[in-house]
Amino acid sequence: MSTSLPRLHAITDERIARRSDLDDIARDLANAGGSDLAFHARGRQLSGREHYDLAVRLSVSQTVRLFVNDRLDVALAVPAAGVQLGRGSLSVSAARALNPRWWIGKSVHDLAEAEAARTEGADYLVVGPVYATASHPGRRPLGLKRLEAIAVAMGDLPVIAIGGITADRVRGGAIRKAGAYGIAAIRAFWDAGDAAEAVRLMREELVG
Question: What homologous superfamily is domain 8-207 in, according to CATH?
Answer without folding.
Answer: Aldolase class I (3.20.20.70)
